[in-house]
Specification:
FAD/NAD(P)-binding domain; 13 helices; six-stranded mixed β-sheet; 36% helix; seven-stranded mixed β-sheet; binds flavin-adenine dinucleotide
Length: 395
Amino acid sequence: MKEGLRISVIGCGSAGPAAATLLQRQGHRVTLFERAPACRPVGAGFLLQPSGMGVLKELGILEQVLARGARVERLHVVDREGDDVLDLRYSELGEGLFGLGLHRPVLLHHLIRTMEEAGVETQWGREILDARREGGKWELRFADGTVEGGFDLLVAADGARSVLRGKLGFRGTDRGYPWGAHWFIGGNRGAFPERELFQIVHGTRRLLGFLATGTELDGGEPLVSLFWSIKLADDAAIRARPLEAWKRDILDVSPRAQPLLDQITDWSQVLTARYGDVGMSRWHGEGVVLLGDAGHAMSPQLGQGVNLALADASCLARCVAELPLQAALDRYSRERKLALSYYRLASRQLTPWFQSDHEWLTPLRSVFFGLTRHLAPARKFMTRTMAGLVGEGRK
Ligand SMILES: Cc1cc2nc3c(=O)[nH]c(=O)nc-3n(C[C@H](O)[C@H](O)[C@H](O)COP(=O)(O)OP(=O)(O)OC[C@H]3O[C@@H](n4cnc5c(N)ncnc54)[C@H](O)[C@@H]3O)c2cc1C
């Protein structure tokens, strides 16, 4: 009965192209609107989890993505003295499970290619300002003054700073974190572990991480992403200082950063990442659904954003395939509730332990993670959390 729904998807990040592809393959007519004038991935590297890889398999692009990623077998966190804080290994969950460190353009390239092959109409440079429901159909208003109507379903996947979330009357919390990070991606040059996400913490104000990031789309040398925790209010002041002073602060936490820092000659190579925190308990309304960060932005402490966005897309497509539209959207919110609520809560709770002014949390962190390191069930649950598998009972 839903053959040939007209569907508009807003945003070409992770959730948007994945949802557009899966819905178009079901025989619906999907148009994706993206405000960027062309494919423009932001950020450096990220960690794809087994949960996200499951969706890439469904999309048929897992092999291509695997070929450019770095197999990450372990999350290893130590303090400045080199003592273990956290050590989680995917192998604890079974053979063959791993994370995949990826350069963002690699994933985006394959998502866009498979979406276009599926026949989705993609319109670049189309910034949506508002959407209105008239006679059971959606009408979209764009920044260039144009209006397009006749959509049965509106899929808002317009990211953490979604304009649609507020315009469509979704209730919930929407706040930013005071802490973010400086990011840089460079050549590994044999200096960093290629199978780890490795972090060094010093109190709660200093966190330095290295993520094996695979290669660029056309191959080349192995890459590594460096991230360095900062208080966002200090960003301008830090950037006003000489680059060398910033490098000295990082080297004070770990001299291992030297080969990467040597590749930075200008502040323009360093990105500032900000994190949103969006919470709600229902991600749909009449003929509309919020996917990805638009509905549940969170701090990347658990590295789940892309994975949850992909899982959202898969769940939505499955619900739409099996039920009449409104019942499908009801079921979507019900099915996503456990994973989305859990990961948002866990990210919120965990973030101050690693990024905050609450130095008094440092000894508590040592005790808590010390205990979980030695308690197999607790360690296994934390590893399942890291792998993105809590609440993701794929049907
Ligand atoms: C520093 C950092 C590190 C991270 N690390 C990880 C990690 O290791 N693993 C992980 O899984 N996740 C990670 N994340 C989170 C991840 O990046 C996001 O959760 C993910 O990108 C969300 O995908 P999305 O499709 O919901 O939104 P986005 O990727 O933000 O895409 C939204 C798209 O919508 C478009 N858009 C916005 N407004 C409009 C409009 N009005 N009209 C038209 N188009 C619009 C945007 O241009 C954009 O292309 C990290 C995030 C940060 C900041």
